[in-house]
Amino acid sequence: MKPPKVTLKQQIVQDMVSGFWQPGDRLTLGELAGRYQASQTPVREALRELYGEGFLEMGAGKTFQLRPLSLAFIENIFDIRSCLEVMLVKTAANKCRAADILHLKTLNHALAEAVSQGMFEIAIEKNREFHDVINGIAANAEATRILKMHWIFIASLWKQVGYGAARYTGVVSDHHAIIQAFERQDADAAASLMGAHVVKAKFELIEKVKNQALPTGDGNEQFA
């Protein structure tokens, strides 16, 4: 069994992804202890871990605040993601085995099925798993840790703005092309495809955020 503070941290993160906790929300010990039915000591430890991982900022009176979002922040994390994922996919293309390629094909098929049935929350999970497999093949723990942290923010935003069949049909197609590059062991092609894949997601998400005028949590009513 995992230590209580790890389980509690995971619960808080899941609530961030689901949109229960919004960017800019202040998180108090009492409120969290009540929601997660825990004492304040493990809550405090979980918050400190999330702060150390970049999810939270210090608020007034030693409180914690869920990190506010802005267009600049979204652009920054996608730019970082692009650099890291291009590096990782290039490494993975040179290291992948037949079993890895089969795993990627299975995940992409499951993603396509979820999209065809309008099950977009499952689709985003299959998309994440697809990228996790590639990152796992590359075996760079530090790069993967950063990407996992950023995925929480990105998943939360997609949850708020909506997914849409058109976006994920394109994702399936991009994944298929990356798999083909893996089959050829063409690392340069895989890197080029992944770079374009991330940039496309960046601009689609930013456009949706602008259109829906989501709050930033910093006192402004919309991204600007």
UniProtKB/TrEMBL annotation:
Q: Does this UniProt record's set of keywords contain Transcription regulation?
A: yes
What keywords appear on the UniProt entry? DNA-binding, Transcription, Transcription regulation
On the tree of life, the source organism's domain of life is Bacteria
Which Gene Ontology MF annotations are present? DNA binding; DNA-binding transcription factor activity
Per the database record, which ranges form the HTH gntR-type domain? 2-69
Name the InterPro entries for this protein: GntR_C, TF_FadR/GntR_C, Tscrpt_reg_HTH_GntR, WH-like_DNA-bd_sf, WH_DNA-bd_sf
Query: Which Pfam families does the UniProt record give?
Result: FCD (PF07729), GntR (PF00392)
> PANTHER family, alphabetically?
TRANSCRIPTIONAL REGULATOR, GNTR FAMILY, UXU OPERON TRANSCRIPTIONAL REGULATOR
Q: What's the protein name?
A: GntR family transcriptional regulator
Q: Which organism is it from?
A: Sodalis praecaptivus
